[in-house]
Amino acid sequence: MSIDNLKGALPDFAKDIKLNLGSLITTSSLSEQQLWGTLLACATATKSPWVITEISAEAAGILSAEAFKAARAAAAIMAMNNVYYRSMHLIGDETYATMPAKLRMSIIGNPGVDKTDFELWSLAVSAIGGCGRCLESHEQVLRQAGMPREQIQEGIKIAAVVNAVATVLDSEAALASV
User: Fold this and answer.
1) Could you tell me which residues come within 8 angstroms of residue 93 by beta carbon, excluding any fewer than 6 positions away?
2) Which cysteines are joined by disulfide bonds (predicted)?
3) Which residues are catalytically annotated?
4) How many CA atoms lie within 13 A of 62 on its CB side?
5) I want to staple 82 with a disulfide (CB 3.0 to 4.6 A). Which of 25, 36, 39, 131 is the partner?
6) Residue 147: helix, strand or coil by DSSP?
7) Per-residue confidence at 1, pLDDT binned at 50, 70, 90?
8) Nearest to residue 74, comparing CAs of 8, 142, 11?
């Protein structure tokens, strides 16, 4: 189970996705924990059983148990936050911005790994979740922590490619079952 299995399963029409997935893994400027945590958090965010299984199996051999759990926690908390904050923004009534969310989010303050890594994973999941407020918030925290824009962009590229892999493979599985 691996990234190679995912690449091998992609059909010819998704050659660009396959090449991008390979390139992201082999040319990353992120630390190994940042890279694999981002891959795992994004796989979880796609909700694709195939992508989750393949990436989590490989990530489990690379990440510490704490980092593995934290990447999954980033996907979990952002699944909630992306819906909440995107909705508050889309309603268009700024009064909601002044109201406390009253949602537990303690994992963000104490994720069990380097806070910068957790913020990167949260940013990438927010790219998949499409929440502009979350993207802005996590990008600002990362920039304040000194992360270069190129690495922030890399996190978003990982999200885009993992999401595309899930879309293609899930659609192929659906067509095969018809």
Assistant:
1) none
2) 131-134
3) 131, 134
4) 19
5) 131
6) coil
7) low
8) 142
Give me 40's structure tokens.
């795992």
Q: What is the DSSP letter of 125?
A: H
Mean pLDDT of 95-114: 86
| Reported CATH class of domain 18-173 | mainly alpha
139-153 residue pLDDT tens? 999 999 999 999 999
pLDDT at 79: 95
CA distance 5 to 9: 6
Please list, residue by residue across 24-55, b when 16 or more beta carbons sit within 10 angstroms of its beta carbon and e when fewer do. bbeebebeebbbbbbbbbbbbbbebebbbebb
Is the Cβ–Cβ distance between 63 and 94 less than 8 Å?
A: no
